[in-house]
Here is the input.
Amino acid sequence: MAAVEKRSRSEWQELDSEHYLHPFTDHKDLGRKKSRIITHADGVYIYDADGNKILDGMSGLWCVNGGYGRHELVEAAAAQLRELPYYNSFFQCAHPPSIELATRLTAVTQPQFNRVFYTGSGSEAVDTMIRIVRRYWELLDRPEKKVMIARVNAYHGSSIGGTSLGGMKLQRAQGGPLVPGFEHIEQPYWFGSDRKMPPEEFGRWAARQLEKKIQEIGVDKVAAFVGEPIQGAGGVIIPPESYWPEIQRICDEYGILLITDEVICGFGRLGHWFGADRYGVRPDLMTFAKGVTFGYLPLGGVMVGDRVADVLIDKGGEFFHGYTYSGHPASCAVALETLNIIEREKLIERVRDDIGPYLQKKWAGLAEHPIVGETRMVGLMGALELVRDKKTLERFDPNKGVGTTCRNICVANGIVMRAVGDTMVAAPPFVLTRTEADEMIEKAWKCLDLTMAAARA
Ligand code: PXG
Here is the structure.
């Protein structure tokens, strides 16, 4: 028996407007336009209450990497809910799914990772990571080492910790004061720079902003550097190849912790298990969520490297931190089956060697479009820069909201892409076929035409 009432689209829209506060939403605006009600999904397609079929070029919200309609995941959840729907892992208890998953996670991560702390989401993973980092330096009798350095335009979640660590200007401007102890350096966004340096030189320059910041603050006060391997919500900022090796060098030289926030990049998005693997860095901690369950149930966590775990365990006593849903049995069972699917269907190899390169090539072809100033894509994570003038790369007037227009045109024409300002981003499921990739590119081209017409009108 379905627990969810069947209603008409307009009834749902009315109830939605009256009762539901959505994430990151202007409700006065939404009240006028009404929500698009998504009712079901299959493969790489979602369907709305009017029966429109839309290719989900964003994998939900960067998470449904295995596509919709995965019966194995439904069965894994149902079986676990029957066996043991919930028990906590406080008070010296544990249960098989959380233990099995911990073991599997340490096998797919770099060798320094032998332990995991579970959370219910990416934001909770980030908060957990912040508390672990602070605790680590306290236990080493360096309590003054508290400052964590992140990047401008980084997204690390919406908890007060994630908001403070993150570099999203508008988000940070609301509801202060923020948590102290976070500093921000420039992001490795070559297209967004004055482009006077060649990309590789720019990458080294951007990385050296970390060194400059450490020297400015004093290494005695710096705890860690945190970055998304590729910034996702910030607009798929793909760093030049020179960037991460230089970040690694600086973290090593100054002895600070290196942390990658793998909430989007983790579990295959870049054609490697983790973004850190793609860029050849050795993080001390990694935060994850989203793709670990293909988004079918909420789960997040922090992989804790030996350097940190050994100190926490040997010297730390009780760590006063944890969540009711840390290691939820059904979420862990779904994550285990997700890992099975990734391995059985060789989805990471598929992103790296097959559908990734195929889509990348087609995506690069969109650079021919008159309002596209740059295209970029690694694995299945890409962006298009919309520009007013293709020759000078001058952007549209930001007040015109051309990116938002393009996003709306995309959805109306059967494809989900997300707009970050005038940067269009895409991150389709790993199971995307070549035919579906062709469809994605055809639709994107058509939507760019329509956007150009709208922007010039
Ligand atoms: N870190 C990173 C790198 C993320 O991308 C979080 C932490 C927080 O995860 P939770 O599970 O608490 O949402 C994220 C989440 C967007 C968008 O519009 C991106 C995210 C969330 C919502 C919207 O691109 N990323």
User: Anything to note?
Assistant: Residues 434-456 form the longest helix (23 residues). The pocket of PXG is lined by residues 61, 121-123, 126, 155-157, 228, 232-233, 261, 263-264, 289, 300 (CB under 6 Å). The chain is about 40% helix and 15% strand.
